[in-house]
Amino acid sequence: MSDDRTTVVVITYNRRAELLRTLDRMTRLPERPPVIVTDNASTDGTADAVARHFPDVRLLRPGRNLGAVGRNLAVHQVRTPYVAFCDDDSWWAPGSLAGAADLLDRHERLAAVTARIVVEPDGTEDPIVAELRDSPVRGPAWLPGPALGSFLAAATSLRTEAFRSAGGFDARLWLGGEEELLAVDLATAGWWLTYAEDLTVHHHPSVLRDPTLRRTHGLRNTLWFTWLRRPVRTATRRTLHLARTVPRDTASLRAFGQAAAGLPWVLRERRVVPQEIEGRLRLLDETQRRSTARRYTG
């Protein structure tokens, strides 16, 4: 069941064993997708191991850690109409890439399809799935699933040209909640995002991570996004809410400091979203305040 519609893009940094497991899964898929790996300057032999064990995988070595922009670098090399992302500790289930491509084929204004996430080794559903399934965003009747206001890169297949035209991931956000800005820019351009219950991505969380750094970047990026795209009143209210509710620790303090330091470029590039998009974001704000699966802001 080979399928030439989707290229898989993976970014990695110092997770050699996890990446090799992911590539073993991805290269055995019945769709036989092309796979591109951007190695973000790993120092543990990751790139050499990929070249040795998976010679058919296209390997990019930018020589520095680009964070999420490593995906942009890979997408420049993509020649298929769709691109699916996964992390070095996650992989798509057999048939799910083809299922996402089918949905994108059928709906020309659909930019992104996010799959159900199953956490391994227990096979349990990621808590974020319930929020995707019950998204408050109202979509058009033709949409094949719940409309989303954002997406999870590790479990999403996108229309390649939509990704490129929206500019991909912003280099200054680096990594941590970087999807939110891109998702809103796609929506502003008239694209829709959806969740697909019958598609699956498996996630086996790596132990090689720095959760404090990720939370710092995620909170900083949330603040930057808020002031880049939301009206002043909303941005002020959301900033104050975060200041009251995030953990009072060094990571949060550092995040607010980094966000403040970036204020000049944020104000320079600020583009408030149309009222329709702001309405969707307000619905999502309420969901996030009740969320038990918030990954970066609390």
Automatic annotation (TrEMBL):
One GO MF term attached to the UniProt entry: glycosyltransferase activity
PANTHER family: GALACTOFURANOSYLTRANSFERASE GLFT2, RHAMNOSYLTRANSFERASE WBBL
Gene3D superfamilies recorded: Spore Coat Polysaccharide Biosynthesis Protein SpsA, Chain A (3.90.550.10)
Keyword Transferase: yes
Family as reported in the entry's similarity comment: Belongs to the glycosyltransferase 2 family.
Record SUPFAM superfamilies: Nucleotide-diphospho-sugar transferases
Domain of life: Bacteria
Record organism: Streptomyces ruber
UniProt lineage: Bacteria, Bacillati, Actinomycetota, Actinomycetes, Kitasatosporales
Pfam families cross-referenced by the UniProt entry: Glycos_transf_2 (PF00535)
Sorted UniProt keywords: Glycosyltransferase, Transferase
Domain spans labelled Glycosyltransferase 2-like: 7-128
Protein name: Glycosyl transferase
UniProt pathway annotation: Cell wall biogenesis; cell wall polysaccharide biosynthesis
